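Subject: Interface between my chains keeps coming out wrong

I've been trying for a while to get a sensible model of this assembly. When I model each chain on its own everything looks fine, but I need the whole thing in one frame so I can look at the contacts. Pasting all components below, labels as-is. Any help appreciated, I'm running out of ideas.
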Amino acid sequence: MATADPARPGFALPLLLLAGFRTLIDDLHAELAREGHPELRPLHGFVLQAVGADGTTATELGQRLGISKQAAGKTVDRLVAVGYLERADDPSDARRRLVRVTPRGADGLRRSAEIFDRLRERWTETLGPDRVDAMEDDLLTMASANWFRLDVPGWFGG
Amino acid sequence: MATADPARPGFALPLLLLAGFRTLIDDLHAELAREGHPELRPLHGFVLQAVGADGTTATELGQRLGISKQAAGKTVDRLVAVGYLERADDPSDARRRLVRVTPRGADGLRRSAEIFDRLRERWTETLGPDRVDAMEDDLLTMASANWFRLDVPGWFGG
DNA sequence: TACGATAGTAAACGTGGTTGACCAAATAGT
DNA sequence: ACTATTTGGTCAACCACGTTTACTATCGTA
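Reply #2:
Try treating it as a single job with all components included. I did that and got this:
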């Protein structure tokens, strides 16, 4: 077993991962604001992504995001209030309330994907494509269990 | 300029960085709980680190963490309540209230550093030391501006 | 038809953040 | 020395996001 390298303290790695995440998300939202979506918050893009093109329900959204159905419902309320999601009745089941992305939400989603692609290109231009590929592969190896768990505020705060 | 690789969509990179961060922090706290610190939350370790061995004040802590002095004060209150921090008067300035790490807090801090070192070793055993070094170097290149900004819940939620 | 499972909502609460207002103590200026 | 400003801390009100508990309404089935 290797010995801890004093020049590479273990606590730096999580901070660097967080800083990388934060940098990408901040850059994304700076560009989104320039392109007409200043209200979109970091969380919202992931929620829109989780709703998807086909729509879903609050309960299913909660399962996808790893949060309770109540929390998912409140988040949907906020996104509805700013015009990125809409609710509709399900004609085949009066209990369900379909959640759908509005045209404005779809625009934000499409722009987010494009901006993320451009940001990744910036990383490959600076670091080289192989390094970025390696980073993604290695993170997938070490962290696949936490893929798409978005309850960040509650998780981090406690 | 490179073209977006459909096999490497840009949105995966931030999710993987977040998943990596989350994996390390979850592993840390699982081990901390086993070693007698089950109350320590993800945020708390970073706050203890920011207080440091010499102690500080709530206002200065807020500046270090990138949050308001009021938010820093409330966080200190909570850590005082669980025994990781203590307050003391400053004999040289009656306005200031020194915040210091308690022995229990110091124990948690020391264990956190050791656990982070062990977790990094696990990564180097799986991925190879060069790959982990490269990941750290590359993240430092791309994200140095966001080193140690810990206002995660407020930033992410909005 | 009656019952259990499911979708959604409401209420109360905890954590972490913000701004605005305020007080007390230290410091600077005349 | 006496104001005036700055600084450290706290309080109150509020927002975002999450939780658990409790409840209603509807669906599907025995």
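Reply #3:
Confirming on my end. The mean pLDDT of chain B is 89.
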